[in-house]
Amino acid sequence: MEAKHDVLIVGAGCAGMRAAIEAFDAGADVALLSKIHPVRSHSGAAEGGINAALGNASEDDPEKHAFDTVKGSDYLGDQDAIEVLCNEAPEDVYQLEHWGAVFSRTEDGRIAQRPFGAAGEPRTAYAADITGHVLVHVLYEQVMKRNIQTYEEYFAWQLVINDDRCQGVIAWDLLNGGLKTIGAKTVILATGGAGRLYVGTTNAYACTGDGMTMALRAGVPLKDMEMMQFHPTTLAPTGILITEGTRGEGAYLLNSEGERFLKRYAPNAMELASRDVISRAEQTEIDEGRGVDGNVLLDMRHLGAEKIIERLHGTRELAMTYAGVDPIHEPIPVRPGAHYHMGGVDTDLDGRTELEGLYAAGECACVSVHGANRLGGNALMETITYGKRAGRHAADWALTHTTIEVPESVEADAEHDLKLLLDRSDGERPWSIRNELAETMHENFGVFRKEDQMREQGEIVSGLRERYEHIVVDDKGDVFNNDLTQALELGFLLELAQCMVVCGLARKESRGAHARPYDYPDRDDDNYLMHTLVRWVADAPVLDWKPVKMTKWKPMERTY
Amino acid sequence: MEVKLKIWRYDAYSGDRELRDYELEAPEWACLLDVLDLIKDQQDGTLAYRKSCRMMICGSCGMRMDGRAILACKERMKPIVDRGHVPVISAMGNMPIVKDLVVDMDPFWSKIRRMKPWLEPGYDEVLERERIVSQQQMNAIQKEALCIMCGCCVSECNSMESDPEFFGPAALAKGFRFVGDTRDQASIERLEDYNDEHGIWDCTRCYFCNERCPKGVDPRDAIAKLGAESVKEGIDRDMGAKHAKWFVKSAETTGWLRETELVPKTQGIVAAVKQTKFAIGLAKKGKVPPPIPPHVAADVGESRALRQLVREQGREGAQGIIQGERGLARIEHTDAGGARRDAPEVTPGEEPPKAEG
Lengths: 560, 357
Ligand SMILES: Cc1cc2nc3c(=O)[nH]c(=O)nc-3n(C[C@H](O)[C@H](O)[C@H](O)COP(=O)(O)OP(=O)(O)OC[C@H]3O[C@@H](n4cnc5c(N)ncnc54)[C@H](O)[C@@H]3O)c2cc1C
Ligand code: SF4
Ligand code: SF4
Ligand code: FES
Known about the structure:
The structure holds two protein chains of two kinds.
Chain A: E1 3-10, H1 14-25, E2 30-34, E3 50-51, H2 62-72, H3 79-99, E4 113-114, E5 124-125, H4 131-146, E6 149-152, E7 154-162, E8 165-173, E9 179-189, H5 210-217, E10 222-223, E11 228-235, H6 245-248, E12 252-254, H7 275-287, E13 296-299, H8 305-311, H9 313-323, E14 332-341, E15 344-346, E16 358-360, E17 365-366, H10 378-400, H11 408-423, H12 431-444, H13 451-468, H14 482-506, H15 525-528, E18 530-537, E19 540-547
Parallel strand pairs in A: 1-2, 1-9, 2-6, 9-16, 15-17
Antiparallel strand pairs in A: 3-5, 4-5, 7-8, 8-9, 10-15, 10-18, 11-14, 12-13, 13-14, 18-19
Helix pairs in contact in A: 1-4, 1-10, 2-3, 3-10, 5-14, 12-13, 12-14, 13-14
Chain B: E1 2-10, E2 17-25, H1 32-42, E3 62-65, E4 68-71, H2 78-82, E5 88-90, E6 97-99, E7 102-103, H3 106-114, H4 135-139, H5 152-156, H6 158-162, H7 169-179, H8 187-194, H9 208-212, H10 219-232, H11 239-254, H12 259-267, H13 269-274, H14 276-284, H15 300-313, H16 325-334
Parallel strand pairs in B: 1-5
Antiparallel strand pairs in B: 1-2, 3-4, 3-5, 6-7
Helix pairs in contact in B: 3-7, 7-8, 7-10, 11-12, 11-15
The complex binds flavin-adenine dinucleotide, iron/sulfur cluster (SF4) (2 copies) and FE2/S2 (inorganic) cluster.
């Protein structure tokens, strides 16, 4: 075993770093472990902002924030978790400011807040169009200040389970090669999302759901896995995000006939309707033949060059670089793309999972505050508030429990499995499996879900998993072998895809991101006001249900 | 499109380097990073490079194309292919190569750490509310806050090449991010520290960092601001500081640079005496005007007015620069034909015209 810690945090995005800081300040021996350098984490790509009822732009309070979140979740969010988030959010944002976050400011020098989709008040604190970048860097500054040990470019592969407790992680050291076992009294998973399940996604290459699958393989259940949010304006073909801010500034969405088609779907809110509504409208246009090469057009030419250059500078740069389109002169082709996984590792309010010593926070976890549909700006807030809570609890627990024991067999088994993979020299390279998975998920488990397509997808994924058994890794070396880690990532993705299909088939209703207009077009609170839960048993997903926690708010129809 | 490129491969075990040729079919929208992905998938899984966000924000994919540092996810291949050019890809400079296009970033990060890169607010507890800071005050560090720590500037830094211990552009830009933050209470200590050997005055002002930074951070400008703040705070022990002070003084009083006095003012009398022979030689050749009486330029008023303006505007005078302006200018420059200039109409029922790219 390489090292032992009180708290080991796998993943160093906003959630992981916030957890590390909190655990450190609670007096624990903390280490971070991440497959990419902390500041490279995908939290840095968040543009829009972070929600807290600071009341700087209007009268606001945590209760209003909570209600918007409950309603936005299509009532699938756990209301106790939402209340905790909204109550603690303001203080957590002030903390970030005191650490030095470069927030944009109001006239009177307070943190500026902007309106965001489906929020009753302007509540989204922001730093120009680089909020996530600013937060990642401020958190890493605090990590450096505390000199918290960081295993950089370590790829976590397996959890160490011993004595019914999680006692560490087995990771592949990318720079030097070799499996390293790092023992810990508690492990916090903060590995982010799994957008790479889809061809068109706003997520980075690193977003492959590793933590979710590691937990799953350790017998811990995942929750609401069918709930993948699609963002309506992602750049074709790669899925790079074009921020909601473009529509906020007045951009139009047009179909191939040049029509502002949203007038037929959301005549009042038009381009400012909620994400799921616009994504469905776009997909309908595309499916009915009024798309342009599988896209619709985001047109901001009427805003004029000056406004575009001044306010939407970043967007213009993205469109020019990745679509070869200058939005001053041409509309941008956009389509719905996989954006955010509401589902994840099932945890309680302190980030605890079913397995003693194992915690989860951030996008890889499901507390659940987002239910069936996340509001823009709530994900970053969740990483901070629940990262902090998990860090605190894990530290407290670790400081009152003493031993770590990693049996040799655990390491030996991992070495054995890895050797099998590396020694194989005949077979398929993983990339075609990865591409087929991402394309078919988009096709069959996208914005709209049909019973037969979901079934078909289940079979496709099973087939891909069989092929995966025989893959070959080209690079046999030790130094920076990300050919190997990318192959392991694909393994994680395949199991998640299977879980998603099982949950999607089970939820026979339409709620939030799970839209089944062809067979179950309505929400069905009598039968499905419940979380799906999925466990891995004998190499296959097994479905279960879990009640939604209600505190104050009774389900109502969700209209905007 | 048919893409051709050459990649400097580096064997991690033997340290051998080899320039290898690649040819492949790539979609027209592909960036260099997409092309590398295709090579890694379909031709050679052992090719090593870093990547993550593929949208210019994570700073993973710094490398060199034809000898200049770039982000692989920011370079569109279409214009390059259209020119019939075969680019050469290699690892960044000034950092040890680990394998192929992957460099060891440890020296980079240890310099960042050297800057004590965290806010020193002067208290520990969380106050009840945020501090009151104007947007204008925040803007003072807007550009430095854009840094994604990609290392492109360090890769190209001339000073670093001759003195590996030079703090370097990224670290110094990070330093200014705190010195320029009104909330920071340790700015004086920082300036003292950054004035040390290998610090701000060791920059050769080659401006390569400004030129190559993919995010428009303009690290050289940050170093200049650190210099100005140091002099303002009376921290001028370094020759560089004295040199700069004399430039300003001379320009303000006479409207031009009195070079004869530059050496004594910068390096002191002893050094100046040692240089006398050289100076006399220059004077004989008519290269140096007689120092007394000082020649005052006719339009000295202009140079004084300029100095006054800089004094009044202080740090904020450098503002009004759009984020990433430089980066964007470069896209327009290299990709003039890629995006159409005239605005095409969307005709009902017809596919709107697409960009060539
Ligand atoms: C383009 C974009 C824009 C967004 N904008 C907003 C916004 O404006 N507001 C908002 O609230 N939310 C936004 N979101 C959502 C939000 O940014 C994310 O949900 C959130 O940042 C996730 O943070 P995280 O800490 O959970 O994970 P991440 O930041 O993704 O970090 C994951 C970490 O885990 C590590 N890791 C993963 N697997 C392994 C492994 N096997 N071994 C070791 N380490 C591993 C990674 O290296 C990384 O450090 C946006 C998302 C995207 C994609
Ligand atoms: S201007 Fe200074 S810091 Fe920038 S590259 Fe040149 S020597 Fe280095
Ligand atoms: S200053 Fe620019 S080039 Fe240098 S590390 Fe920062 S973003 Fe990269
Ligand atoms: S991949 Fe993130 S900057 Fe290029």
